């Protein structure tokens, strides 16, 4: 009977809902298109789904409504909007009840009530609570659990009475529903009382004529069931008259029941013609709707008609019943499928979310790893550089030590030479000079011819001694260590390197006073030559290297020339060998020029101020 | 009466020996008859000495040069060793040391170890001095060169007394040997050498701690 109430509202809602629906769809579209999923947007999204669900519910498109309600419910659950969940569940419960999924509807309603109970009491909360109680009442009525049904309807009624605003219509609805439960449970007097309460309102026939007709019919039927047939069929006919006078689908739908009741009444009275008339009328109208009412009409007809016609209607009844049952099952399956599909989508979402999480974790790990690798690599490079510097220092030290030891060697050689000269003077010259002197001294006294002869012998001996002294003097004069020291080291370096690398060399060493050059300069020059030779060996494939030292206008000039393959000076700037030479030249504040011609050789020139 | 004098001259320079011979032959007294053997190295000298003992005609006078190349068997390192040996086997021979060395240390050492009858520094020597030295050694030893006399006088008059090791340290330092190498020359530890050097610096009142000053002061005092 509740269905009836909804159909009344549908008329008003469908048009409005249509407009709203398109708007809501737009919202969903835009939300989906933009792929936004933050809290605000998903709320919008859910609201849109809810509105569409509502729209479909009023349009009696149960499965679509259910789908959108379910979507809205899931989003609300995520957002933990309890009230919204509850009202969505209410929508779902109503659909379930309409589609005769009574247990489902019961469960959904109870859950919605539980949610509402957790909220603060407001008018809106109470309103939906009363609606849910009403729904439960209807469900239990259908399940023929009249005690529960009555209890829930009473609850609903009590709650509705506390509500603010115009609650007359909804209270009347509840009363009607309560009375229906009483009627179905056989408590006709109580039912009559409530119907009476509704009908007492004289304005009702003008305000809600279809509802008035419905209640009137119910009232009359209760009378019929309680065997108080005095006012019958007058009340029935009055209700039917009101329905017929109204030209809308709700009224014509209501008239089915009234016609059925009339047919039932006349059948009882054995006025077959009237009974048949109303039964056929009920059937005709209900055929438009193809539902339970048609079923009832067919059953009624099978009772009223006789023989073959009765059998035919019974058969039709069974066929329709089967098809309705099938439809119910299908719709229930559909619900289950929608729930399953959305669950699947949910699971898919969860899976995607998990994948995203993994992706995030993996990328974080990757980033961290790459950062670590990067830092390790840079650290290693730094270490390498440090090592390189250390090595350079070591080699510098080596050269320094080499020079020091060379100095020592020179010192030693000097001492040795000194000793040798002194020895030579002492043993070779002095002794002979002494002997000659002594002899001449002794001969000095003699005047004999023999003495004169011997004397001249000694004098010529003096000459030999003179010669010897000159020799020693000459040896002393030629500085046996001249140009040694640093130049010796360089010479040794060039000799050993060129020998090892297998090329010839020419060393043009103009007398250069190395004593004035600082050790730093010497070390760097040594290293530059070493590095250059290495480069020549590695890259140039030369056969001859010319190295020359010059000093011009207080500028020292080192030139290293090879006859190798040469290279592109601009491109090779970054080679480590050249870099080394560069840094060394900078270190001694020198000037480096490199000239190179392909297949003709390379010339490196380094100029350093001597001061 | 003819005085027969047997002489062994040891010097690695034939020219010097010739000089000695010339001088002696020219300046000998008429009653003296000289028989001179010449040895140019330690080995020859040893052979002559041993032979003279065998024949029981030992040498009366030995002219010994200090700086001689070592003997082939290595027992004789210089004229000094040779002279010492001669002292043992020819106790009656008069030894005249002739040397180019005029450093106090060497002079000191030679006097101490050999105590020669004649000690002549070649640079001082003239033929007349050699002649008089020869005669003096034969009749009235000892005869020392002026340099030797000066050295002896200096050491006697000096208040400073130092032992042989310190003397050697001074000598080696004056030769330009470094302190770190002194140990190997002297067979004592470096710390011991440092200790001795400290002593020496105090003895020769060296205040700046320089080796050069030490040597200079020591030379003044006749120890180098």
UniProtKB/TrEMBL annotation, chain A:
SUPFAM superfamilies: ATPase domain of HSP90 chaperone/DNA topoisomerase II/histidine kinase, TPR-like. It holds the Pfam family HATPase_c. Keywords: ATP-binding, Kinase, Membrane, Nucleotide-binding, Signal, Transferase, Transmembrane, Transmembrane helix, Two-component regulatory system. GO terms for molecular function: ATP binding. PROSITE patterns: HIS_KIN. It catalyses: ATP + protein L-histidine = ADP + protein N-phospho-L-histidine. Residues 1-19 form the signal peptide. The keyword ATP-binding applies. It is an enzyme of class 2 (transferase). The chain crosses the membrane at residues 357-377. InterPro entries: HATPase_C_sf, HATPase_dom, His_kinase_dom, Sensor_HK_TwoCompSys, TPR-like_helical_dom_sf, TPR_rpt. Gene3D superfamilies: 1.20.5.1930, Histidine kinase-like ATPase, C-terminal domain (3.30.565.10), Tetratricopeptide repeat domain (1.25.40.10). Residues 525-611 form the Histidine kinase domain. Its EC number is 2.7.13.3. This is histidine kinase. The lineage of its organism: Bacteria, Pseudomonadati, Bacteroidota, Flavobacteriia, Flavobacteriales.
From TrEMBL, chain B:
Residues 6-137 form the Response regulatory domain. It comes from Hwangdonia seohaensis. SUPFAM superfamilies: CheY-like. This is Response regulator. Coiled coil: none annotated. It comes from the Bacteria. Keywords: Phosphoprotein. The modification 4-aspartylphosphate is found at residue 65. InterPro entries: CheY-like_superfamily (IPR011006), EvgA-like (IPR051015), Sig_transdc_resp-reg_receiver (IPR001789). Signal peptide: none annotated.
């Amino acid at each position: 009977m509740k269905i009836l109430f909804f159909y009344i509202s549908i008329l008003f809602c469908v048009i409005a809902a249509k407009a709203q629906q398109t708007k809501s769809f737009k919202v969903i579209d835009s939300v989906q298109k933009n792929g936004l999923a933050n809290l605000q947007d998903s709320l919008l999204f859910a609201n849109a789904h809810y509105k569409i669900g509502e729209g479909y519910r009023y349009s009696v498109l149960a499965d679509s409504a259910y789908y959108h309600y379910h979507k809205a419910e899931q989003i609300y659950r995520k957002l933990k909007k309890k009230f919204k969940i509850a009202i969505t569940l209410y929508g779902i419960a109503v659909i379930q009840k309409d589609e005769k999924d009574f247990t489902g509807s019961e469960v959904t309603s109870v859950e919605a009530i539980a949610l509402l109970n957790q909220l603060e009491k407001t008018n809106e909360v109470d309103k939906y609570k009363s609606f849910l109680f009403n729904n439960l009442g209807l469900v239990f009525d259908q399940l023929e659990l009249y005690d529960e049904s009555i209890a829930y309807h009473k609850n609903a009624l009590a709650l509705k009475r506390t509500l603010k605003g115009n609650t007359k219509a909804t209270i009347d609805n509840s009363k009607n529903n309560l009375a229906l439960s009483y009627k179905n449970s056989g408590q006709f007097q109580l039912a009559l009382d409530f119907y009476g309460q509704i009908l007492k309102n004289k304005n009702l026939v003008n305000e809600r004529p279809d509802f008035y007709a419905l209640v009137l019919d119910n009232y009359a039927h209760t009378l019929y069931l309680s065997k108080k047939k005095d006012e019958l069929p007058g009340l029935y006919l009055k209700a039917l008259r009101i329905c017929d006078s109204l030209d809308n689908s709700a009224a014509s739908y209501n008239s089915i029941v009234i016609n059925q009741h009339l047919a039932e009444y006349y059948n009882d009275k054995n006025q077959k013609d009237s009974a048949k008339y109303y039964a056929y009328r009920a059937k005709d109208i209900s055929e438009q709707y193809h539902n339970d009412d048609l079923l009832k009409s067919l059953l009624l007809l099978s009772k009223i008609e006789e023989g073959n016609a009765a059998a035919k209607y019974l058969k039709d009844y069974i066929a329709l019943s089967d098809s309705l049952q099938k439809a119910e099952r299908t719709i229930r399956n559909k619900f289950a499928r929608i729930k399953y599909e959305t669950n699947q989508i949910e699971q898919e979402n969860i899976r995607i979310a998990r994948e995203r999480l993994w992706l995030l974790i993996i990328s974080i790990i990757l980033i961290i790893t790459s950062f670590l690798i990067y830092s390790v690599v840079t650290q290693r490079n730094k270490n390498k550089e440090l090592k390189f510097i250390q090595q350079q220092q070591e080699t510098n030290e080596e050269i320094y030590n080499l020079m020091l030891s060379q100095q020592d060697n020179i010192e030693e050689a000097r001492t040795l030479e000194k000793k040798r000269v002194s020895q030579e003077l002492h043993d070779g010259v002095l002794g002979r000079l002494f002997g000659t002197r002594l002899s001449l001294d002794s001969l000095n006294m003699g005047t004999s011819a023999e003495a004169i002869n011997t004397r001249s012998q000694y004098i010529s001996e003096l000459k030999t001694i003179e010669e010897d002294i000159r020799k020693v003097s000459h040896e002393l004069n030629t500085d046996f260590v001249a140009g040694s020291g640093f130049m010796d080291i360089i010479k040794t370096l060039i000799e050993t390197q060129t020998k090892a690398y297998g090329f010839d060399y020419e060393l043009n060493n103009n007398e250069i006073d190395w004593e004035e050059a600082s050790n730093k300069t010497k070390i760097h020059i040594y290293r530059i030559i070493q590095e250059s030779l290495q480069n020549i060996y590695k890259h140039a494939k030369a056969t001859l290297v010319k190295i020359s030292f010059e000093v011009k206008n207080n500028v020292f000039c080192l030139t290293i020339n090879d006859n190798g393959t040469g290279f592109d000076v601009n491109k090779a700037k970054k080679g480590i060998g050249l870099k080394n030479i560069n840094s060394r030249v900078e270190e001694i504040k020198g000037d480096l020029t490199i000239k190179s011609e392909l297949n003709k050789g390379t010339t490196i020139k380094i100029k350093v101020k001597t001061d | 009466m003819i005085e027969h004098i047997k002489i062994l001259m040891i010097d690695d320079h034939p020219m010097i020996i010739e000089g000695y011979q010339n001088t002696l032959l020219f300046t000998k007294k008429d009653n003296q008859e000289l028989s001179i053997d010449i040895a140019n190295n330690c080995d020859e000298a040893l052979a002559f000495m041993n032979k003279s003992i065998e024949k029981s005609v030992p040498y009366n006078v030995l002219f010994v040069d200090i700086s001689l190349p070592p003997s082939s068997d290595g027992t004789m390192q210089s004229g000094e060793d040779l002279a010492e040996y001669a002292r043992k086997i020819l106790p009656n021979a008069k030894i005249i040391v002739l040397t180019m060395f005029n450093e106090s240390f060497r002079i000191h050492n030679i006097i101490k170890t050999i105590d020669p009858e004649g000690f002549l520094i070649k640079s001082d020597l003239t033929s007349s001095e050699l002649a008089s030295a020869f005669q003096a050694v034969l009749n009235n030893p000892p005869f020392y060169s002026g340099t030797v006399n000066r050295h002896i006088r200096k050491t006697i008059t000096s208040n400073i007394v130092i032992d042989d090791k310190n003397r050697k340290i001074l000598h080696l330092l004056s030769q330009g040997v470094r302190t770190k190498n002194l140990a190997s020359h002297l067979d004592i530890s470096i710390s011991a050498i440092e200790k001795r050097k400290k002593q020496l610096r105090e003895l020769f009142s060296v205040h700046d701690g320089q080796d050069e000053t030490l040597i200079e002061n020591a030379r003044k005092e006749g120890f180098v």
